[in-house]
Amino acid sequence: MMRPRVLVVDDVAGVRDGLRTFLQRKGYEVETAADALGAVRWIKRKSFECALVDMDLSPDAEMGMNGLDVVALLRIHQPGTRAILISASADTALTRLALRRGAVARLEKPVDLAVLVGLLQHLAPPHEDTPGGNGAELLPAGPDRRP
């Protein structure tokens, strides 16, 4: 059985590598990119079921793009890829903007790994018998509904 592919885009090496290792252990094939340019290179080479994209990518000298731009490019070039925006901000306006750009969910940093796994199992299960269920903010989202 082919493992679902996930693209992780984050400019912080520890976050990027930690997510890669964690997701590989959960049965996913994972590629990583440190910036928007790296993400674009992967988008052109390989298809992905899901992409985890950090909103606040360090300014990319060549492209000047942030995470929302990467999400928009995924929507154009890989419309079947489910983009999940990761952000340290709880801003509901950001959530609405992410939806318009093509994201299906937004997770706050630090990412709750149990919530991430539940969301990925729902969107791209690594095995056919994997149950869904998650605590992520699926879009469209209304007012902030954190407990």
Task: Give a written overview of the molecule.
By secondary structure, the chain is α/β, with parallel strands linked by helices. It has one domain: Response regulator (Rossmann fold, 3-Layer(aba) Sandwich). The protein contains 5 helices and 6 strands, in the order βαβαβαβαβαβ. The protein has helices at 13-25, 36-45, 67-77, 92-101, 113-123; strands spanning 5-9, 29-33, 50-54, 82-87, 103-108, 137-138. Strands 2-1-3-4-5-6 form a 6-stranded mixed β-sheet, with helices on both faces. The chain is globular, with a radius of gyration of 14 Å. 36% of the residues are buried.
Q: List segments where confidence is low: pLDDT < 50 over at least 5 consecutive residues.
A: 128-147
What is the number of strand segments? 6
Named CATH topology: Rossmann fold
Give the helices and strands as they follow along the chain.
EHEHEHEHEHE
Largest sheet, strands/sense/barrel: 6 strands, mixed
Named at the architecture level, the CATH assignment is 3-Layer(aba) Sandwich
Name of the CATH superfamily: Response regulator
H/I helix tally: 5
What level of helicity do the residues show? Answer: 25-40%
Rg, please? 14 Å
Shape: globular
Distance between the termini: 38 Å
Strand percentage lies at 15-25%
Mean pLDDT across all amino acids: 82
> What's the number of domains?
1
CATH class: Alpha Beta
